[in-house]
Amino acid sequence: MQWLDVRSDTVTQPTPAMREAMFAAVVGDDVYGDDPTVAELEALGARMLGKEAALFVPTGNFGNQLALLTHCRRGDEVILGDDCHIVWHETGGAAVIAGVQLRTIESELGVLDPRAIEARIRVGEDIHFPRTGLICLENAHSNGRVIPLDVMAETRRVADRHSVPVHLDGARVFNAATHLGCDVREITQYADSVMCCLSKGLAAPVGSLLAGSRDFIARARRGRKLMGGGMRQAGVIAAPGIVALRQMSGRLAEDHANARALAARLAALPGVWLDEASVQINMVWFRLADSVDVTALMDALADAGVKANPPEDGWMRVVTHWQVSAADVERLADVFEAALTDRA
Ligand SMILES: *Cc1c(COP(=O)(O)O)cnc(C)c1O
């Protein structure tokens, strides 16, 4: 069966152009600095992300943890949102790899109040205090929300007042730029370093980029080796990353439009609570009424060849990507409609 997989944008398969690029990739030993395809990806990524240099890393998780390791000293404090990926979904790596302490602040749907950040920056020489080593932002947030540029700018001003660097978890930064209708560099200008996933909506099979100043990336290259991320003929997996940046970063508006179309249909169904204004990127979040027979709904989706994650705490998430067409969205909405109007 040809599955329609809407669990995440991580499920995307490489495009035919990516497979061809992998086949044709010129490779070398990248630990020696000999892989021209990796070098090309890193140069392209640095340019597109508006930074001096970039480093190819195996995963987004790796890139974030490498950023913490490179920016911070052991025992430093990192200020970040209580619902961010680094806190929730990176296996506590910050304590193990960089040896830092995470100081969370309440996030308002992914947005951190710059004043709340400033209030937590350690000031003075009190030997009791950890040093504030870093501020981390996430844009787009993995809850599907985009952080407005003025909030990013104000956070930058706070960081500059206290000489604290800013790392941006930009796993979906191209989705954020697409939503804001701006160049991705208008977002990344407010961060010292940025991590961007090639393997989500951009559809590369593996890989992420960490970008920053030339000096920062030189140090990160050492840290990547320490973390076991020195890869050899990595051009084979860097080649689809080049295609991801060149061909896929500009088409995300399609995924966003499909998500909005799906949201409009789902919002009209009985037993569904959905705020259409919350659909900013390729993610549709909605609540199901207690009366909805979730098992029957999940069975109906599976029977129709749809892979979807079941609701968690009553919330369900559907994600669009290049392998979900406008017609697929209508078909998916039809399955929901049949299941919910029969059984809600
Ligand atoms: C997916 C994601 C990551 C991690 O990326 P992996 O490649 O899955 O390790 C980091 N941050 C955010 C916000 C993400 O959505």
From TrEMBL:
Q: Does the keyword Transmembrane apply?
A: no
GO BP annotations, alphabetical order: glycine biosynthetic process; L-threonine catabolic process
Q: Name the Enzyme Commission number(s) assigned to this protein.
A: 4.1.2.48
Look up keyword Lyase and say if it applies. yes
Q: Which UniProt keywords apply?
A: Lyase, Pyridoxal phosphate
CDD domains from the xrefs?
Answer: TA_like
Query: What is the uppermost EC class here?
Result: lyase
User: Can you state the subunit structure given in the record?
Assistant: Homotetramer.
Q: What is this protein called?
A: Low-specificity L-threonine aldolase
* Gene source species: Crenobacter intestini
